[in-house]
Specification:
- Helices cover 57% and strands 14% of the residues.
- It is built from 10 helices and 5 strands.
- β4 and β5 (126-135) form a beta hairpin.
- α2 (24-38) runs antiparallel to α6 (143-165) and α7 packs parallel to α9.
- The protein starts with a helix and ends with a helix.
């Protein structure tokens, strides 16, 4: 359903007095609650990358949202992962009719969720996480909804920037600091892999993450090796799958 610009302005205006110095977790909770209300959604959540370069849930409106964020983290699958790796909005309109989500589809259905929308949260030119909303009924996400969620993501970025400036302490603050430290390194490594292997951003990120897991090393350390000129081990099956998906996407948009 279209988002009225006045409703968006009023919603963001109501959050304008949020101060992360009074508690970062509480501030992000209020923001995700605001997003849930604005979009008439059934749940909303925020994910940030950690010191390992992995997306971790940082805030959620309720247990459903926390479960969805947590399972996307574990499965490395879902609109959050797509929005983060491609730096673009990612949506599920109706999980009953959209193939390709594999195990995450079962997670959505088990939580009574049918549709989802995720947008990247960017700070200082790098992606540090995603802002996500979920609906129990099929939803053909309107362009105004995508734009509104992006505006909310911009507010998230502003609040996180303020938290860094204020040198706030705590688990979320530490997670944020790690996100800021590693965002550029991971982006650069993705670009190198995309150029070397002629694959898209999401497949490049999966290659990077798979190499980190198989070597039991931190994603940031593997990314540093890649930007330093070292090759990743070739996973022919993964590359073939990624290229097949790219070809399918080109056919769909042609």
């Amino acid at each position: 359903m279209p988002i009225n610009p006045t409703d968006l302005a009023n919603s963001i205006g109501a959050l304008g007095s949020l101060d992360p110095e009074r508690g970062l977790a509480r501030t992000l909770q209020q923001l995700t609650d605001g997003a849930k209300q604005l979009f008439s959604a059934d749940a909303a959540g925020l994910m940030l990358i950690d010191a390992e370069g992995q997306l971790r849930w940082a805030s959620a409106t309720d247990q459903t949202a926390q479960t969805l964020e947590d399972r996307q983290e574990r499965l490395a699958q879902g609109p959050c992962a797509v929005a983060f790796s491609q730096r673009l909005p990612a949506a599920i309109r109706n999980i009953h009719t959209e193939p390709g989500w594999d195990k995450f589809a079962q997670v959505l259905l088990s939580e009574g969720i049918c549709a989802a929308l995720s947008v990247p949260v960017e700070l200082d030119g790098g992606v540090i996480g995603t802002l996500d909303i979920y609906a129990g009924q099929p939803r053909d996400w309107d362009p105004s909804e995508v734009a509104a969620l992006q505006a909310y993501a911009g507010l998230v970025a502003s609040l996180l920037s303020a938290a860094v400036t204020a040198q706030i302490k705590g688990r979320l603050a530490d997670q944020l600091q790690a996100a800021l430290e590693h965002r550029w390194l991971i982006e650069q490594a993705k670009g190198v892999i995309m150029g070397r292997e002629r694959i898209d951003a999401q497949t490049a990120f999966e290659r990077l993450r798979s190499a980190a897991r198989s070597s039991t090393r931190r994603l940031a350390d593997v990314a540093r090796d890649v930007t330093g000129g070292q090759p990743l081990p070739t996973n022919r099956r993964e590359l073939a799958k990624g290229r097949a998906e790219q070809a399918k996407d080109r056919e769909t948009t042609a």
